[in-house]
């Protein structure tokens, strides 16, 4: 860690906390973050030359593994034609058509450059479309760092204990209503009182920013019904779940159709990309067709589109998601069995290619309250023991971990074997 430690010190002298996005600083687990030099397949290599099997995957985009040749070659080819035009390209149509083919509820869609932009734009659109100001989100869900959405937020905001960030005017925050994830009764109560003022519900259909919490049976269906009854827009934030929990995202997996969907991460193959889209009648409110303004100089950037399209085309070849889901189950169940052998209480959640584990006596974790009550100190020790062993898990108890198609059976067996050694040390 010598070189990483030196770089971290140097970085802290010029970049706040030494990082350009908070969770990278290892705030959730303490210690020195690994500075990464390169990555290939299922592995990342740090500045000290140490190799790690990676379960973060750049927080999601690397579903095909790092440095995938199809994506790399598409980018290299695109670069030869120029980096940005600020004018429309045929590639953007191809990309939009590919996304719609896989996520048909996105009848019309627009590209942006990050997940934050996607959710921020979708919220503005829902407000413009309904003429209402209030939005409803769930405690512990993270939808990027737009003002309205950093209220009781998950991910780095939760890790750092600032789910309600300073800098957000009370006048904005008061329009964001928050209720408990997986609690339909609370949603119904709020709608009974304020339904005619609520523009939208935004939800991570599988919560991935307070560890990994799938929806309980009937939850997503219930949200759909409430929105229909009250004329509110249902937004599935599939920035994390899209193309990951199933090819068609959580909406395909759970068979519930939102009005709007937000995407990011995976659809860029590693380049900065996001998208929002949905029902034509709603999307027609977006400028230049409609009055709701939204724009971006680098939106639909040709290099990002080339990477994204190559990634999605590759992801659609064969049934990659069956293998991803089977491997994810192997890791999750392997962790559970290894922990049990050493008397460590562990609860696991997994859907498609995302998983989470909780140090708790509880059988299943379905809520924010349960997730935040787990043994955080034990998580930190386990994380660092795994890191020493050469396995890079999400550096926070409030983030999901990800598998890629590059993880082999051998990688998975090695990971479980290492986890067992680490659980043994925890138990000692
Ligand atoms: N929504 C969800 C569900 C996310 O997980 C994230 C990022 N982790 C975002 C939105 C924001 O995306 P970005 O970091 O690209 O702005």
UniProtKB/TrEMBL annotation:
Enzyme class: isomerase
Pathway the protein takes part in: Porphyrin-containing compound metabolism; protoporphyrin-IX biosynthesis; 5-aminolevulinate from L-glutamyl-tRNA(Glu): step 2/2
Catalytic activity: (S)-4-amino-5-oxopentanoate = 5-aminolevulinate
Cited InterPro entries: 4pyrrol_synth_GluAld_NH2Trfase, Aminotrans_3, Aminotrans_3_PPA_site, PyrdxlP-dep_Trfase, PyrdxlP-dep_Trfase_major, PyrdxlP-dep_Trfase_small
GO cellular component: cytoplasm
Gene Ontology molecular function: glutamate-1-semialdehyde 2,1-aminomutase activity; pyridoxal phosphate binding; transaminase activity
Residues annotated with N6-(pyridoxal phosphate)lysine modification: 265
Highest taxon above the source species: Bacteria
PANTHER family attached to this UniProt entry: GLUTAMATE-1-SEMIALDEHYDE 2,1-AMINOMUTASE (PTHR43713), GLUTAMATE-1-SEMIALDEHYDE 2,1-AMINOMUTASE 1, CHLOROPLASTIC-RELATED (PTHR43713:SF3)
Description of how the protein assembles with itself and partners: Homodimer.
Protein name: Glutamate-1-semialdehyde 2,1-aminomutase
Annotated source species: Thalassotalea euphylliae
Gene name of this polypeptide: hemL
């Amino acid at each position: 860690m010598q070189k990483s430690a030196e770089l971290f010190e140097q970085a802290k002298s010029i970049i706040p906390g030494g990082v350009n996005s908070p969770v990278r600083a290892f705030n959730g687990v303490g210690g020195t973050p690994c500075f990464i030099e390169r990555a290939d397949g299922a592995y990342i290599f740090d500045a000290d030359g140490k190799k790690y099997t990676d379960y973060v995957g750049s927080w999601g985009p690397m579903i095909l593994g790092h440095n995938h040749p199809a994506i790399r070659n598409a980018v290299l080819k695109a670069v030869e034609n120029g980096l940005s035009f600020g004018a429309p390209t045929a590639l953007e149509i191809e990309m939009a058509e590919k996304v719609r083919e896989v996520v048909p509820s996105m009848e019309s869609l627009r590209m942006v450059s990050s997940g934050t932009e996607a959710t921020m734009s979708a919220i503005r659109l829902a407000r413009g479309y309904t003429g209402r100001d209030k939005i409803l989100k769930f405690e512990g869900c993270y939808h990027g760092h737009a003002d309205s959405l950093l209220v009781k937020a998950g991910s780095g905001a939760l890790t750092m204990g600032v789910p309600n960030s300073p800098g957000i005017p009370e006048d904005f925050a008061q329009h964001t209503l928050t209720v408990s994830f997986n609690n339909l009764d609370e949603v119904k109560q709020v709608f009974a009182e304020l339904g005619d003022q609520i523009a939208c519900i935004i939800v991570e259909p599988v919560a991935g920013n307070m560890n990994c919490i799938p929806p309980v049976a009937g939850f997503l269906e219930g949200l759909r019904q409430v929105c229909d009854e009250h004329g509110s827009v249902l937004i599935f934030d599939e920035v994390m779940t899209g193309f990951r929990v199933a090819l068609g995202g959580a909406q395909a997996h759970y068979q519930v159709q939102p009005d709007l969907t937000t995407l990011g991460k995976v659809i860029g193959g590693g380049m900065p990309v996001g998208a929002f889209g949905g029902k034509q009648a709603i999307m027609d409110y977006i400028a230049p067709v409609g009055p709701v303004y939204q724009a971006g100089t680098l939106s639909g950037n040709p290099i990002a589109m080339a990477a994204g399209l190559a990634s999605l085309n590759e992801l659609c070849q064969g049934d990659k998601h069956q293998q991803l889901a089977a491997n994810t189950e192997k890791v999750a169940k392997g962790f559970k069995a290894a922990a049990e052998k050493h008397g460590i209480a562990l609860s696991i959640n997994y859907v498609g290619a995302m998983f989470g584990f909780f140090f708790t006596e509880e059988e299943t974790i379905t809520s924010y309250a349960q997730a935040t009550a787990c043994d955080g100190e034990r998580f930190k020790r386990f994380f660092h023991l795994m890191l020493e062993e050469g396995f890079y898990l999400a550096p926070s108890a409030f983030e999901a971990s990800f598998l890629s198609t590059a993880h082999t059976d051998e990688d998975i067996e090695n990971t479980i074997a290492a986890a067992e050694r680490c659980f043994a040390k925890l138990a000692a």
